[in-house]
Amino acid sequence: MKKIFLPVLAACAMLFSCTNEAAKPAVADTFSLDSAKAAIAASNATYGACFATGDSVAFVSHYTSDACINPSNMPKMCGPQAVNGFFTGGYKMGIRNLKLTTAEVMGGKDAVVETGSYEVLGDKGVSFDKGKFIVVWKEENGKWKMHRDIWNTDMPAVAPVK
Length: 162
Description:
By secondary structure, the chain is α+β, with helices and mostly antiparallel strands.
């Protein structure tokens, strides 16, 4: 009897353990697109204002540690030093604010994509440039940050000098 009972008991134990595993609820996905949208809106509200104060550290902190930016008429620039160099150049040119208007935000826990329009402003709100952008956002250390950033102008191209 023991010889038959032990294999049956083992088979039952395996059957119930598999059944119990299947009955366990899946781990809840904590991603919320609404929360990501709110974090992006908050970041956008402070991003352009960094130019008003000349705060390159705060500007760079809006990006992931391995971010790349793709400015109009320039090669791709990656990493905090490159992003800081871009900020410094823009500040020296007179940029004092960026107005960002989000058109749409979509994605999931691995990445969120934002599209919209921008306006570059100088002293006294003088407009330097207007255009559109696409940003890929990633969560880094619990904060949504820009990971890939590309923009291009809506302004007419400058005619070549003859």
